[in-house]
Amino acid sequence: MPQFTSRRGLLFGAAAVSAGAVLTACTSNESDDEPAANDQPAADDKPGKAVTIGFAGPQADHGWLNAINDNAKNRAEKYSDVTLEITEGSNDTAAQIGQIETLINKKVDVLVVLPADGKALTQVGLKAMRAGIPVINLDRIFNSPQAYRCWIGGDNYGMGLNAGTYIGEKLKDKPDARVIELAGLDNLELTQQRTQGFDDALKNYPNIKKVARQAAEFTVESGQAKMAQLLQAQSKFDALWNHDDDQGVGALRAIEQAGRDDFLMVGGAGALSAFQAIKQDDGVLKATVLYPPTMAASAIDLARALGQAKGVSGLAEFEIPASLTLYSAVVDKENVDQYMSTGFK
């Protein structure tokens, strides 16, 4: 999952299925007969000035990160006036800085950057901006607002808040309800933000007590190992919030191996496997809270708009906003079909 992000900016209430479409009515070249699905730009515009967008992301060693790359590539392919220059991606900051400098030297029109480390890559963001290349900073935020023209990303605090509220509403009539939390990497600020949001939501439900928390590492293996520990330590609880659907695959394996089905589980991010399990509704996983990778598609839309000196349809301003925080919608059996096409593998 993303290494560093912020709640700064507008609370932009675009659900994952429309995270791109809301932003793109001013930038599409599709006909009015085309559906405004996740991979389909909204219809309202004709091809314009040709724009070359440089895209630099981290190594796709996680389902969410791979989905970020796929969303960017697929969105760019929808536009006949967009050329996407994409780097190989790296979790090594020096390597990623070198890749971005190559894009700067190629004189791309706009840069979209999801930095492996926002702090470490701030200087190269500043370099691009000073070279006259506007930067869309995707999710992991640079230290200086001068290093980007627009930031777009997820709401980690909102993930925890919405997960806690969902669980709270399910357990509000249960006396002495007990919940546990399977967090991500504790050295990441995003993990702390998610936990804080979760704890703040539970304050509204005095009958609910969080009795255990274990940090995993956003991997299937760590999810399975840490969940097994939680299950062994907690013989009785009513709900589990797992921060990440990738590690949730492992958590569900541990739950199945332990033969437990006496609680409800809420996941995080929006993996296809989670959506499928929620729809099937024959296990403990009842919902997941989105951290939509469709933000990468929206970043391409915003980059195209910048390159063509356009604003965002639906807003009165001539310019695109300085920041957009996407909404962490809760997906359960009632609305899972709406989001199924956005699920990542």
Commentary on this structure:
- There is one protein chain.
- This protein is α/β, with parallel strands linked by helices and 345 residues long.
- The chain folds into two domains: 181 residues, Rossmann fold (3-Layer(aba) Sandwich), CATH 3.40.50.2300; 135 residues, Response regulator (Rossmann fold), CATH 3.40.50.
- Helix content is 36%, strand content 19%.
- The protein has eleven helices and 13 strands.
- The strands form two sheets. A seven-stranded parallel beta sheet has the order 1-12-6-5-4-2-3, sandwiched between helices. A six-stranded mixed beta sheet has the order 8-7-9-10-11-13, with helices on both faces.
- Helix 2 runs parallel beside helix 10, helix 5 packs parallel to helix 6 and helix 7 packs across helix 8.
Concise account of the structure shown:
With 345 residues, the protein is an alpha/beta fold. The protein is built from 11 helices and 13 strands.
